[in-house]
Amino acid sequence: MSKGKIVGASLGNCVHVAGVAHFLNIAEDEGYEAVYLGPAVKVDAILESVEKNKPAIVALGYRLTPENGVTVARELISKSADLTHKPVWVFGGTAPVSAKMKELDFFDVIFDGTDDIDDSITFLRTGKIPEKNSAELFAADLVGRLAQKNPYPLLRHHFGLPSYAETLEGVEEIAQSRILDVISLGIDQNTQQYFFRPEERKPEMDGAGGVPVHDIEGFRKLKVASQCGNYPLMRCYSGTADVLHLAEVLNESIANAWCAVPLCWYNELDGRGDRPIKTSMEEAQELIAFHGRNGPYGPKGIPVELNEPHHWGLRDAHDTISVAASYISAYNAKKLGVCDYISQYMFNIPNSLSFSMDLAKVLAQIHLTESLASNSFRVYRQTRAGLPFLSGDEAVAKGQLAASTALQMNVKPHIIHVVGYSEALHAATPEVIIESCKIVRGVVRSTLSGNAEAINDPKVKERRDELIREANYLLGFIKDEYADVSDDPLADASVLSDCIKRGILDAPHIVKGGEFLGTLQTRVKDGKCIAINAANGSAMDERTRLEKLLPSLKRGCRPQTAGDLKTRREVI
Q1: How far apart are CA 155 and CA 114, in angstroms?
Q2: How far apart are CA 149 and CA 25, in angstroms?
Q3: CB 46 within 8 Å of CB 17
Q4: Per residue in 393-410, pLDDT tens?
Q5: How would DSSP label each residue in 364-384?
Q6: What angle, rounded to 10 degrees, do the helices at 43-53 and 66-80 form?
Q7: How confident is the model at residue 558 (pLDDT cuts 50, 70, 90)?
Q8: Is the C-alpha dihedral spanning 438, 442, 448, 451 positive or negative?
């Protein structure tokens, strides 16, 4: 159903129509009937169209000298007094012209060029522009805000300084900027590990890697500080110990927008905690299930992100493992009752991947992950630049951030996890976060309505399909290998932890020895991260890698040899 007509024109002697035309295009997408009058339209012609069409909105643009614009606007104000139909008057122009128009106190809404596409969408949907401290315009939950901003992606950024006081002040500054949709609190390792055991905190580690928070009131104050500007959502790292208790604290204190948890990490494997892999994985599954049944959506629970695949990529696992990990992550989330699943795709890892092969890897991850999507398991794409990708030269890093964002836009993300350009030098300050988000917004604005179709590059398609086949082989291998000991190997913590110890799931950065028996070596060749034969440096597909691996390994329930291998079925 039409929301009514919207008349658009460039006012008076102004011939610049791009802004008005784009605004009308957005309005049509939002259900309005657009009436475009063109450039340099005289006041009398505009008023005649208003009386004839009786539009809900009249959108006028002017981008010339402010004083000349004021003269034409005063004529409009004087003559419009006689109109029998009273529309909403919208003005768009440069900042100097818009400032003069505000002084006239005639236009209901003024866009001054610093606004973005999502501001126009909000106005066309609500009749208001998102001024500061307009709480009613901003959904307080993730799914609601995604719907509000669609098709514009939400922006999320990590924030947590070593000083609690500076973090508290910074949260408010970021919220008042109205640039960020989700503040992702980065708490220090002491808080992640010892929140409920303060006597075990290590004073010399306070503020290491994030903000120290000592009690629930500390979280509450951070949330309160965010309740201004555009009322950003807030979320926080999961813990590396007492994970369910910390989840309860986060939900109560900051209304945790979603839970982000790795399946295989935050334990003895990476040093972020001292839990055995199997224990941490079982606790991660409990945490996933907890969020699947709790939260602001009643039986739908709280959204969950398994930030698993990029942990493998950051440790130089070959692309096949990262793709398989995407499927394993989503599979566990779905089985454990999650309804709204956030699938994160970290581009640029390893950072020497070519853009085309990196895109192919992410497309393969998306294919496997979204093969699980259903009405009761909704998948949202979240993209980001890689942690090691950005240069220590901030000017170069800004260019890299923009380039990576343009690449990410090929997969139409619902959320962009912005990485501050200072990442290689220091934790992002509010100033860095705001500037980084503006860089990303500029890229989104330029690519949202049409981007170069890199996904149709034949080489990208070929590599995507190859990775889907290889990941399917690995997934099928795990299912077959453990079929005699587990009804559901891909969701079995005992199986997955054993796969890591035996090297079926492996990464070069995992320290080998003791229980960890993997032999994986990888290299980036032709823009792809591949498994190689250590003896001669040649590439190995999954069948070759796993057949070479198995003869030297034994599993407690039944030894196997290469001769026992069966042809692995595809699982997707």
Answers
A1: 17
A2: 16
A3: no
A4: 999 999 999 999 999 999
A5: HHHHHHHTT-BTTBEEEEEEE
A6: 40
A7: very low
A8: negative
